[in-house]
Write a structure and sequence with these properties.
This protein has 202 residues and is of the alpha/beta class. The protein has a single domain, classed as 3-Layer(aba) Sandwich (Rossmann fold), CATH 3.40.50. The protein has six helices and nine strands. The protein has a seven-stranded mixed sheet with strand order 3-2-1-4-5-9-8, with helices on both faces. It has a two-stranded antiparallel ribbon with strand order 6-7. Bound molecules: S-adenosylmethionine. S-adenosylmethionine binds next to α1.
Length: 202
């Protein structure tokens, strides 16, 4: 099966199960670090928003205008119910259909690691366009090492992961037009992930 179909159908099937355990890893410290850079009422894009909780919900609760995108119907259905104050759209994050300078910030929690890594540069290239100058983005783009293609059982469905190592991930994000403000491996909810905070240079 095509990799993106594994991810899309997998997350649609486990949407409720995933959502029920997601609260264990609220990521509040991280997301608070992000909003310090963004004025209230700004427009924020949540890539691979899942069920909208806790990230989109936290952002709406803090006065931001949030657009969440995801390609799994099961997740979008929950997100619309969980966060009525945000707008949710079905979209593949490797093919973001927004006009230039549409957002003041972007977040992506645990989503880019499910995209075949050769497509990662394309995501940042597009983000560089659709984010306004000096917009801030926060995302996790890698684990501690490198996984070219990895498929395994996840919550009872087949799931796919792919990413470069942190050093290469930083190089790609820089090359696509961002200034790195911070990047570090953090262990959150038992998982070590590489997180990046970056500013759009235009
Ligand atoms: C691990 S979940 C994280 C959801 C949410 N960001 C959170 O923090 O709870 C990953 C989400 O990314 C979505 N996703 C993965 N690849 C995607 C793609 N290429 N386009 C759109 N959504 C994608 C999945 O459908 C899933 O909802």
């Amino acid at each position: 099966m095509e990799k993106s179909r594994i991810v899309k159908s997998g997350y649609s099937k486990i949407a409720l199960k995933y959502h029920r355990q997601r609260g264990k890893y609220p990521n509040i410290k991280l997301i608070s670090r992000f909003i310090r850079h963004i004025p209230k009422a700004s427009r924020i894009l949540d890539l691979g928003c899942g069920a909208g909780v806790p990230i989109s919900k936290f952002l709406v609760g803090n006065g931001y205008q949030v657009t969440g995108v995801d390609f799994a119907d099961g997740m979008l259905k929950l997100a619309r119910k969980n966060v009525p104050g945000a707008k949710f759209m079905k979209m593949d994050i490797t093919n973001l259909k927004f006009k230039p300078n549409s957002f003041d910030g972007a977040v992506s929690f645990y989503a880019i690691i499910h995209v075949p890594r050769k497509k990662h540069p394309k995501i940042y290239k597009r983000l560089h366009k659709i984010l306004r100058p000096h917009a801030i983005m926060l995302l996790n783009a890698s684990g501690t090492n490198t996984w070219e293609e990895y498929t395994d059982d996840y919550m009872g469905v087949p799931m796919f992961w792919s990413f470069y190592n942190p050093k290469k991930t930083l190089r790609i994000i820089r090359n696509e037009g961002f200034k790195i403000l911070w990047g570090d491996v953090l262990k959150l909810g038992g998982e070590k992930q590489f997180w990046v905070l970056a500013e759009n240079k235009k």
